[in-house]
Amino acid sequence: MSPVAAPTNETGDLTRLSAARMSELLAAKEVSSRELVQAHLDRIDRVDGAVHAFLRTMPEQAFEAADAVDRARAKGEALGPLAGVPVAVKDVLATNGTVTTCGSKILENWTPVYDATVIEKLRAVGTPLIGKTNMDEFAMGSSTEHSAYGATHNPWDLDRIPGGSGGGSAAAVGAFEAPLALGSDTGGSIRQPASVTGTVGTKPTYGGVSRYGLVAMASSLDQVGPVARGVLDAALLHAAIGGHDPHDSTSLDEPVPDVVAAAKLGAARDLKGVRVGIVGQLRGEGFQQGVLDRYAEALGLLEDMGAEVSVVDCPSFEYALGAYYLIMPSEASSNLARFDAMRYGIRVAPESGPATVETVMGATREAGFGDEVKRRIILGTYALSAGYYDAYYGSAQKVRTLVQADFRAAFEKVDVLVSPTTPTTAFKLGEKLDDPLQMYLSDVATIPANLAGTPGISVPIGLADGLPVGLQVLAPARADEWCYRLGAAVEAALEDQWGGPLLNQAPALPEGTASAAKPVSGTEGGAR
Amino acid sequence: MTAQTDMDPTPLDFDEAMERFDPVFGIEVHVELNTKTKMFCSCPTTFGAPPNTAVCPVCLGLPGSMPVVNHKAIESAIRLGLALHCSIAPSSRFARKQYFYPDVSKDYQISQYDEPIDADGYLDVTLADGSIFRVQIERAHMEEDAAKNTHIGGTGHIQGAAYSLVDYNRCGTPLIEIVTRPVEGTGAHVAEVARAYVAGLRDLVIALGISDARMDRGSIRADVNLSLRPKAAPGEDQSTVPLGRRSETKNVNSLRAIEQAIRFEAGRQAARLAAGLTVKQETRMWHEESKDTTPGRSKETAEDYRYFPEPDLLPVVPDPAWIEELRGTLPEPPAQRRARLQKEWGYSDLEMRDVVNAGAIDLVEQTVAAGVTAAAARKWWMGELARTANEQGVELVELTVTPQDIAELEQLIAGGKLNDKLARQALAGTLQGEGSPAHVMEARGLAVVSDDSALTKAVDDALAANPDIVEKIKGGKVKAAGAIVGAVMKATRGQADAGRVRELIMERVGV
Amino acid sequence: MSVLSRDEVAHLAHLARISLTDQELDLMATQLDAVVDAVAVVQSAVTADTPATSHPLPLTNGWREDVVQPGLSNEAALSSAPREEAGQFRVPQILGEEP
Fold first, then answer.
1. Which of residues 143-162 of B touch C (CB under 8 A)?
2. Which domain holds residue C27?
3. Chains contacting C with at least 3 CB pairs below 8 Å?
4. Any idea where the domains of chain B sit in the sequence?
5. What is the pLDDT of residues A34-84, one digit of tens each?
6. Which of A89, A190, B17, B76 places its Cα 20 to 30 Å from the Cα of A275?
7. Which residue in the list A23, A33, A184, A189 is annotated as catalytic?
């Protein structure tokens, strides 16, 4: 009897498999990459009308990549673990020949002529890219409601937000439309959506994954990372995209931590001697009771597995949100200046008066950017402007120094820090749309890691009122393996209790509503 | 009324301006580096390539692209800094200078702002009277060049154009900007010092080999600012008199223009001050055709560039050992080299200055190295060739003649194959691309005729045609032989050996 | 107390080249005022002596060698241009000189 059971005996639905399991079945030739791509495209057809996780699907490219991998495997070529496993891509990553909108109207017609480095890497290992996922415009938001192409819905409750900015990637994975997805995390845009959709998401160490081709929001905070349904799956994708890139000077020129081994080690549920720090500043005020309950249970679980849990004080974290909402808009105001109607994107003439460079730029940016983007650009312009720089941007950079010092001091005492990933479970669509400040609070726990460049993972730790709750594990910079080890241990312990992944408890999605995602045949231009 | 007060009175004569006011100037020079690739991407730095063919996602500012610093550009900046006696910052960094303009592909320029790589240096410049003036340098920093706009419609100038075309080939070319401190104490030498400073900087970057240094192609560009202040009262220290308000003149792109622009601005400002008007702190444009400056378009709001540290780039922290290694590669300082060569060549100050001003110092040095005497080298380069270059409006180095050609020419003269006149003809051939002087001599059949039988016949013919002169010679008027020599030379189209012709005349006449 | 006036927001919008409508200006002035008020807490956390940090990690010296790599063809470079002419990007008339 083969150790690899046929998929039909196992689940009856290829989309329910983990990426790691797909990898095993592919290697054993029990399933073809083409079948996997087909199964996921079918699933997208059935449920994405309700979820709206995708802006575009790329069937032709995906099948082409799948067939290439299937042929290579037939010939006995050596292939990486993710060869043939479909991946969805947040629409903030440049894909050569496929329109990349960043969720913005201003880029509705931009077809990149180059691939982001992570896309290049995935193409090289043979992962079929099945589509581009929805997001808050230019990754600015915590709900995916700020997409110019309509909101994405939380697979657990279609009336609720899937988190943001990477709500599309998290919802795609959570709705079994893709086993894996790429996200980007500037203040929590991978971890917060993972938390509220019951999926796993990692923000790697800053510089651990190339940012080349990631359309920048805040360059000193942005990081590309994996979204998955399990910790090992996230580790596999992390390993595939990580490493130095000569096109990104801020990428680390050192080996990628062995996150796959760490995930496997963690699954053994032995945390003897591991020192876990509870961030004192991230467990009380503003946190929903149900979230705190699940969090307390998770901490108990960590102790049960042998971890030494203590409370660690990080006083400057109180100011991290303020610092973030100055640094991020400052950098964003600069990064988004290039959307000026001169070289790419839409061009809009002013309603009245002469069409000059200045008026066309103003009219295009007025028409092409949504409210949240405009707010942040203006806030950032303010924070950097003459006379205010020191008080705002300057002070925020000083807080960053303090946050980094707090992390350094904490990691002298403990191996990892933990907190709830988000203060609340998924809120209702529209609930916080008119109150930017309330929306910003969703990121309170995830932001410190971006300011300090440290890695963080969010793993599901149960439900509060029927909605997922996430645990965030933060590790020192360059020690991403700790996130995976702890994450995998908690996951293994809880899945044991639950009798399977948390997502098995998610309600069935309505099928049949037509998908809003635009299938792209071949490429839409671009250059090789 | 307000327009009236804004009008400039007739400029004062420069000398008069200098009698009444004390000038202070400063110069910002942009030097385009001659690296193979751009400052932040691997596109070639080209001049004259078809539009938008030396571009990539980075220099086009495509979403998601990221800059990566050119190591060679840093090396050039450090070497220039060392040559200017600057301190090299242990850590410097890049910043974003933000302004919306179509030729800046990201709508910000990456430049060094508060932490430049080179700071606090100087350049000694030699003036016409041989004195040396030290220009203090505040800083030199790295940045990227902008794209090229072509204005279509109207007059082809920016004002009144219907639209513009943008070519990003130049966008991202590495620049070093060198900024002086305010230069005081030049008095009436202000324009000369300013010109000599830029010339000195040009010589330095040429000696360092870091730039093509072609002012005509914009690879060195200068912005000149000038202010005037009242002359100090007798016994008062001029440096204690507060500086006046300055104008900044852009688009000053030749050495001559630097001198002219300063003289014009000094006269303009002096006239305003003399008339009791104030000088406006403003940007002005230099006009090469009319030799004057006009105000740039005034901006409704003060510029707010919102500089902040470029997050996509890391601080530049050069290894001290590398800096020392680069110090070892510095060429002899141009001023020192000039003094040494002048001594070796035995030129007068005036002769040396002509050579330097003509940009012929390397050519003369190479010509001498090829075996030509310094006097002959100067004769050729500063004579025939300088005239030709001037006529064609090109630099000496751009002529098709090489130092080796001059050496060959001199050898042909020394060997008696060419006389002075024929040598000039051979050189003209070389200048027209007909090959080396020896080649031209062969091809054009220019060699000196010293074959006696041919010459004897020509001499006899000339003597027969001029019996009166023959009588004069016989009568002791040897000088009259010159006319016969001239006739022979004419008959042989200048190819006769004049010395030999004279001997033959004397033989034939029997004197 | 209002830290960010409507006029100031209008000036910032101009600096950022966004032609906000009057209505947007009103709303944004109110919203941003609240945000600025909230983020201003950073000022109380730091002193003049606190060093500023602009990068998440203390890395230095990322650079590349001076070697030409192939770039984009003219066609690819212009492929998303709103308007092109003669191999160049065609842009509206420019008022004012380069800053």
1. 146, 149-151, 158, 161-162
2. 6-45
3. A, B
4. 2-299, 334-444, 452-509
5. 999 999 999 999 999 999 999 999 999 999 999 999 999 999 999 999 999
6. A190
7. A189
